[in-house]
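Quick one, T. Sequence first:
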Amino acid sequence: MSPTLLVLVVGLAQGTPAGTPAAPASHEQPAAAKEVPKEGDEAAAPGAAAATHDASPSSGQAAPVQHAPVEQGSAASGHGEEHGPAQILMHHVLDQTWMGLPSKHLAFFVIAALAVIGVVRIALRGYTGGVPRGLAAFVETIVVFIRDEIAEKNIGHGDGRKFTPLLCSFFFFILIAALLGLMPFSATSTGNLAVTLALATVSFLAQQYAGISKYGVVHHFMGIVPPGLPVWLLPIMIPIEVLSMFTKPFALMVRLFANMLAGHMVITALLLLIPLMAQISTFFGLAVVPVSIGLSLFIMLLEILVAFIQAFIFTLLTSIFIGMYAHPAH
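Structure tokens:
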């Protein structure tokens, strides 16, 4: 709400014009009431006290009049704050309740997981005589690409197939969750930091499992430090290598979260240009409508590409990190 509309609302609530200084007049009555006992003598003190007692109901009625504009003004300003551009932007970004559930992101997290299972089940039924058809051909193309071009090349021919199911799960879940977030009245679960933290934690555990299962616990952590280093460099390199173990999943978490969040913030900000320009002039508001909607549709189409790219990058980086622990010498 603009300042002009706020002043008008407060003025109407008081029942006086917006520019009428009603507050100072209400403050003069208590001052006059306080001067009555000072001007009278000691003999008139009981009468003054009675007059003060008789005037107290009127002053008691004036008190709400004094505070009513402040409360109404604060309520009006609070109403304006709820519908400000920043609040609208964060309302479309932050988590909220949905259909009686405590978390909308959690609901669409479960929906995305069930959708992945459903897609896989439908794809398995699409094989007729060992030949994939329809959705099965599309899913098999992606699975073969992840196995041959990502897992085998970055983890190794022997270990790549073992981690292919995990990498496929990452890819399809991130892709479907991002595509679900583009639907109206939906939410992108991977735009929640808790979800990306969980995905990064699973990736971190897979990285450690790759090294421990192959070399054992002791040799796995000893292999973190490159061999052949001088002894005086070990106090420097050991903390750096231990820290790098946690920076890898941290990078995965922040990268996925930021990319999923940024697109929705840009689309919401572009759509907010319409009411913001309409406050300046109706002509400006109507003129910016095609520009705002056109740019929003372009970003929406770009978000489809971003969904595939982010699913691919998360899967690729996870395979690279797993390969670093499975083959530390390389």
